[in-house]
Structure formats: C-alpha cells, structure tokens
Write a structure and sequence with these properties.
Strand 7 and strand 8 form a beta hairpin. The N terminus and C terminus are likely disordered. Helix content is 44%, strand content 19%. It has two domains: 146 residues, Rossmann fold (3-Layer(aba) Sandwich), CATH 3.40.50.2300; 174 residues, Alpha-Beta Plaits. The chain is elongated. Strands 2-1-3-4-5 form a five-stranded parallel beta sheet, sandwiched between helices. Strands 7-8-6-11-12 form a five-stranded mixed beta sheet, sandwiched between helices. It contains eleven helices and twelve strands. The longest helix is centred in the middle third of the chain and has 23 residues.
C-alpha cells in the first residue's frame, strides 16, 4: 500500500478520515512541536512556519488546511491583525488554536474576537491540548472536505437583495449544517435574533426608502459585530439572525450586548438628517447533549426577542432551556 493510501485511510479520534494539512506557525513553545509530531503520527500532513505571516501567504493552499496552530509570543496588536486578515480573506471555517503564556491567556477575549477558536496555556501537555481540541479538529477536516468536494454553501449564492446578506433559505441551510456539526463534535450552538425597534416610525416620518436604508445599514452593523466566520442573515423585514457555532449561552449574550451597544451608538444616514434607532435582541443556545433540534433553537431565540419587545424593547433577552413558551 502506498504512503498516500495509508494517510487517506487514517481516522481521527472521532472516526473522520484524515487527509488534510495542519499549519504550525511560530512554534516557540516546545509543546507546539510535540503536538505537530503527534498529529503527524495520526495522519495529518504537518507544516511549520517561523511566523504568523504564513497565514496570509499562498491563499490558494488554504483549501488543504484542516487546522492552524499558533505560538503566541509577540505584538498582540500585530497578531490580532493577522488573524482578522486570515479570517476575512478566505479562512472562515478553518479551526485556529493559539498556544501561549500568561500574556495570551489574559487576552483570551481579544484573540477570540480576532478569530482564534481556542486559547491554551503552553504548560499543558500535548495530549491534554489535543484532547480538548479534537472536536474542532474533526470539524476542520469535515469543512476541508466540503470545500474540496465543491459543496461550499457559498456556491448557492442565496443573498438578500437589499442587504447583500444571506437570505432565509441560505440561513436555513446554514442552521441545519451547524446543528449537525455541533452535535457531531460536541460543541454548543447559539442563535441571536434581532429586530429594529419602531422602524414604522422611520418609514412614516422619512419614507420607506429611508427605512430600507436603515435596514441595510443595520445589517452592516451586525456584520461588523460578528466573527468573520459566523452567519448573519436577513430573515425578512427588519428581522435579522446571527448564528454562532461553538459558542454557549453566556458568550452569545455578551456578543448580543456588544451588538446592541454598536447599534445604539451608530448614526444611520437618512436622506436629509442622521437617524438613530435602537434594537431588541433575543438569544437562545443549544448545548451538547440537549434534545433541541435546529428549528427549536430559532423558535426559542424568537421567543426571547418577543419577550424583549413585550418588556419595553431596546434590550437583550435570553431564552433559558427550561423556560416554558408562555413565560417568554
């Protein structure tokens, strides 16, 4: 049997065939080199690079990547910028694992917002890091295969004509795909539904063309708030939805609060004068092992949104898994 066949037949711990590459950039911590050796024995093609700049080199080769491992030791601002550029320029579904010292751990939230999926202290063993990261590595291999097989959902090009965001049909496909992925790799999945408060007043005062402009700009605000590989879609009217794979309820609420503040602080461009609006956000989450299906996740986020509208608007509300529908 040829070496290539042996690699193709190798399975990761979740039973997914391994054929992809793993990039290890700036392996300044010894554990990174040991992780690379362990992944190589598991069937991955492991490449090393001296700097994070390798993330931005040869964009065409990213289709081969199943994961990226980064050694953190340098300028945080520069590293964040490289991560953002990587995510924005074609690496949306590739898991990024960051390993560093106390400096990295203190800045976990900043690195996650820039595009890192998991941050680990460098004093953990390679076995412990890979055990925690295995669900993401499995997802990365599944994503790589989907892209290489030509089944990337971006090819479906189901876009909303007003905002350019994915439409309801595209979102439904993303929701089913993410729910299945979350179930298989044991990760949470969260959903945020948002609605502009009192948009009717804008339409009555300035006209529907200005109202459409506010809807379009509102979609832009949500797009700036999300991670580059999240889905933000327009469901219709002034209702939008945001899907966060690998994010639990608490972190999803914080993301919704961040978006809520961005909306409240934004000035929307009207025909003759600036316009300010507020929005209400409803959040729901599907945790590993839960019995919800994808439709229930969206319905519960809708219930949280309705609860927020009924309780005064301009708020963020979370729908707890144990909460009855009539209580929302």
């Amino acid at each position: 049997m040829a070496a290539e066949d042996r690699v193709t037949d190798t399975l990761d711990k979740a039973g997914v065939p391994v054929t992809g590459a793993v990039l290890v950039a700036r392996p300044v911590w010894p554990v990174l080199r040991r992780i690379g050796e362990l992944l190589s024995r598991r069937g991955y093609s492991v490449e090393t690079a001296d700097s994070w700049g390798a993330l931005l080199a040869e964009p065409g080769r990213r289709a081969d990547l199943a994961a990226v491992l980064l050694g953190e030791y340098g300028s945080v601002a520069e590293e964040e910028e490289i991560l953002r550029r990587f995510r924005d320029s074609g690496g949306p579904g590739i898991p990024v694992l960051l390993i560093g010292g106390r400096n990295a751990i203190r800045r976990t939230r900043r690195f996650r917002e820039a595009g890192a999926d998991m941050i680990f202290p460098a004093d953990l063993s390679e076995e412990e890091i890979l055990d925690r990261a295995q669900p993401l590595l499995t997802y990365g291999e599944m994503y790589r295969k989907a892209v290489s097989d030509g089944r990337d959902l971006s090819d479906l090009a189901m876009r909303d004509g007003l905002t350019g965001l994915p439409d309801r049909r595209r979102f439904s496909l993303d929701l089913e795909r993410c729910a299945e992925t979350a179930r298989r790799i044991g990760q949470p999945l969260s959903c945020i539904v948002s609605d502009i408060d009192d948009l009717r007043n804008v339409n009555e005062t300035y006209g529907s063309a200005v109202g459409d402009g506010v809807i379009r700009q509102f979609g832009g605000v949500l797009s700036r708030a999300k991670r580059s590989y999240d889905t933000v879609a327009r469901l219709g009217g002034d209702e939008f939805v945001w899907l966060l794979l690998g994010v639990g309820g608490g972190e999803a609420v914080r993301a919704a609060v961040r978006a809520h503040r961005l909306v409240s602080g934004s000035v929307f461009d009207g025909t003759h004068e600036p316009i300010r609006v507020t929005a209400t956000f409803g959040v729901a989450s599907l945790e590993p092992g839960a019995e919800w299906d994808a439709d229930s996740l969206l319905e519960n986020a809708d219930r949280a949104l309705y609860w927020g509208k009924e309780s005064g608007k301009n708020v963020v509300r979370f729908y707890p898994p144990g909460k009855e529908a009539h209580d929302a």
